[in-house]
Design a protein that fits this description.
single chain, alpha/beta, 7 helices
């Protein structure tokens, strides 16, 4: 199944996260999958969910990897001040993909430039890792805010990403809350939809498309890094 047997190469899946699930709980899944890629020498690209920055991600992963491996294998897209603004000339760490969308939703030219920067970082990371699969971890809330004036452009970008994920043999994980405006349209485009919910303090995971049993979620760190542990409930 999608959960018990793992996702196939070339899968683009949406992880729908209930509003009462905390970011720290969501990370039981996202961090485990990302660190699994890094542990295998594979690249991970991230567009963080709202309120999360690259430093927070790096600090949270450091107990399970090294500075050198993080800099080599992780790329995080993050807004930086527009050209000419304060701090615009500051150098950026190797894991950062700087984008100039600091004033809310971007202008079309800024959006195109950001997309090109992300694609260039992907190509560099793919070559650096010898053509191995790349994990793309995408926070849809940040994308929706950036593309607020161009929603159809965003859907086109997601459609292209779905095709590219399949043809390149990568894995893409789109993260969304159920109240996200674009979610219904995205779900109609993907083959894989997983829902993360919580009841009476228990974190639960279930495949919606294709349908799976209901699992309780925990994290196992006995291997030296977090591994998602699933226990079947129904």
């Amino acid at each position: 199944g999608i959960l018990g047997g793992g996702l196939p190469r070339g899968a683009y899946f949406v992880l729908e996260v209930a509003t009462d699930v905390q970011i720290s709980e969501m990370r039981l899944i996202t961090k485990a999958i990302s660190l699994n890629f890094i542990n295998q020498g594979r690249g991970t690209m991230i567009v963080p969910t709202g309120g999360i920055d690259s430093k927070e991600i790096r600090d949270g992963w450091m107990p399970y990897t090294t500075d050198a491996e993080f800099d080599k294998l992780v790329r995080i897209q993050e807004p930086v001040p527009s050209s000419g603004g304060k701090g615009a000339s500051k150098s950026h760490p190797p894991y950062l993909i700087p984008v100039k969308l600091a004033e809310g939703s971007g202008r079309e030219g800024e959006i195109d430039a950001s997309s090109e920067s992300f694609d260039a970082a992907y190509a560099e990371l793919k070559a650096r890792t010898g053509g191995q699969p790349i994990l793309r971890n995408i926070g849809y809330d940040n994308l929706e805010a950036s593309y607020a004036r161009f929603p159809e452009k965003l859907l086109n970008e997601i459609g292209t990403a779905i095709v590219q994920t399949k043809t390149r043999g990568d894995l893409t994980m789109g993260l969304a809350r159920p109240n996200l405006t674009l979610l219904p349209k995205v779900l109609s485009m993907v083959d894989w939809h997983i829902r993360l919910t919580k009841k009476d303090g228990l974190l639960m995971l279930q495949g919606v498309k294709p349908y799976t049993n209901l699992f309780a979620v925990d994290s196992d760190v006995s291997s030296g890094y977090p591994v998602m542990k699933l226990t079947i409930l129904i």
